[in-house]
Amino acid sequence: MSDDARPLLRRLFEPSSIDTQAPAAKVLTYGLLLLWSLVVLVPLYWVLITSFKGPGEVDNGPFYLPFVDFKPSLDAWRFMLLENNTLGPYLNSVVVALASTGLAVLIGSLAAYALVRIRFQVKLAAIAIFLLLLVGVITLVATLGVSWQIAVAVAVALFLLALATVVRRTRRAVGNNDIEFWIISNRIMPPIVAVLPIYVMFQQLRLLDTQIALIATYTAVNLPIVVWLTRDFFAGIPIDLEESAALDGASRFRIFFTIALPLVRSGLVATFLLVLILAWNEYLLALFLSNADAQTMPVLVSAQNTTRGPQWWNMSVLIVVMIAPVVVIASVLQKHIARGLLVGAVKG
Amino acid sequence: MVLPAVVVLLCFAIFPLIISAYLALSRFALAPGGFTLKFIGLANFRKLLVGSQQYHLLGVFGAPGPGQWIVLVTAGAGLLFLLARYLVAGRPTVVGALGRLFAAAVAFALVLVTVVTSAAGGVPGTLVNTLLYVGIGVTVQFALGLGLALLCGQPIRGRSFFRVLFFVPLMVTPVGIAYTFRMLADMQKGPFAPLLRAFGVEEWSWATEAWSARMMVLIGDTWQWTPFMFIVLLAAIENQPRDQVEAARLDGANGFQIFRDITWPSIAPVAATIVLIRLIEAFKIIDLPNVLTGGGPGLATESMTLHAFISWRTQDLGGSAAVGYMLLFVSTVVCVSFFQFAVRPARRFEA
Lengths: 348, 351
Fold this sequence. Notes:
The structure holds two protein chains of two kinds.
Chain A: H1 8-13, H2 23-50, H3 55-59, H4 75-83, H5 87-117, E1 122-123, H6 124-144, H7 148-169, E2 173-174, H8 176-185, H9 191-204, H10 211-235, H11 240-247, H12 252-263, H13 265-281, H14 284-289, H15 297-302, H16 312-332, H17 334-347
Antiparallel strand pairs in A: 1-2
Helix pairs in contact in A: 2-16, 4-16, 5-10, 5-13, 6-7, 8-10, 10-13, 10-17, 11-12, 13-17
Chain B: H1 3-24, E1 26-31, E2 34-39, H2 43-49, H3 54-57, E3 59-60, H4 66-89, H5 94-117, E4 123-124, H6 126-152, H7 159-167, H8 174-184, H9 193-199, H10 210-238, H11 242-250, H12 255-282, H13 287-292, H14 304-313, H15 317-350
Helix pairs in contact in B: 1-15, 4-5, 5-15, 6-10, 6-12, 8-10, 10-12, 11-12, 12-15, 14-15
């Protein structure tokens, strides 16, 4: 640096080599980055210290530094974790998020793999007839009160009949790309459209307010994302290994589980994490489908707005215990998630 | 092997969609020993679009002033220009022309409703609120995310620290974010209260005014979703051709030129795709407004999903399903249009 003969101003505003930044630009870059760091950290810091406050510390005006201008206490933590029923919803959240993510990744990656490796041809006429029959069954059951078992049986028979006669003669078919597009486009559907019938469905099955209902629904909701992401991972692995395994007589499923899945491990980790976070934070569906027994954390947090006004200290404890595990996991594996998302976004 | 996925989606997407369509076309009423569903055709939609619930979904129309007329005329002229250019310069097909005509008509209708309800004397409804969240939110998040990604893409020390830190808000549950920002924005007890007192605005409350309440929702949403844009764009920037950047630097290109000619073309497809993903998700917003403001003051922050949820709670199942269908319609048209007219060209641009 010292043998740099350039005048001070030029040294400030011009980089000394192409791999570095000029000092002035560097200051600006760091300044802006630190500014955004504050934007990120201040809310998190405030939640964290509020969880160690009591009613007095919160109501008597803002206190910023524990031990300096207020005395931190564990009262809120003790109350929320021991006396209040927080553990139940927490367990529900863990079980629902893990199970639904596992199922979604399993079903979704199976579908994605098959869509990459097997050529599908589904007759357009078959789909049209299927949808017509579905609408027909629903109308019959809903308006005329036909029992649904009979309606479904008749519909299945009609569908098989149509497959054997009409459909065989038509030629227009949808291929892999169309199926894939259809699966992914399901994500566009706002959950509010589907949640009422799903609610009624689980009510009929007497599964409302159970973990099963939430797991099944979350699996379906996150399936499109899994297919969308894992498709490109499978498309990126060489086919030779699988071909030689197939020659040796391994079945499709065996090839999938022993060869294809291990090869896309890091991609699967990224997908799993992303879906896990979505399931962990999901609010709307849980609000409809769970009540007391299967209540998840987001619903519990949002229900803290009591008639006495929100108790910020208790609520902060809930928020901290909710975000701590995901933040830790995601920070450690952040690079995988970014790469996984990038692969998905490049090919789409 | 695709079968499990198809079955799951049939059960939880297609089947509910059809039932929902049926609900949207009927009136639901509790009756002794159960409920009754009466088929009433499009009455639910008529009520929302031109009838007694119009104020709720679309809003109250005001008298557009000169500013509003300018926006309307500009939007109309712009859409007409794009249509004309396609018909004259492109190779128009019947499907392409009809699709574009339809997309343009919907776009104009959305602009019209937004402009007219935000004019003097108008009150925006839930449709307009949702559009504002989506439009302003996604734009701001993309701009911030891109800016931060460019900064973090510089050869500086501590990059990995910033990257992990900036990623964190994405993990936080939206409900938690809503309460956190309520705490922060508390005028008497929040951390910024002394500052506000110094400016003499402690009596004012953001929750009682429409635009400040909407701003709060947007701030919370932006805090959460900027990291998503940031993290993917940063990964894309790091993937750009290094040799080209260095060659350009040696030739004396400045930062802006490098961004315009090398970085932007190489990240454009990714950028278009993540904006599409955000668009899809942004239309579903409910947690933030529900917890932050409860949809108030009045209807000022109520999104369409929240609207449908409130209808459901008041036993208006038909109306709820109809609102849901309106949301499905708007978000599908917007997202498909964006895919056709932004994502596809961006990908071709790269190839």
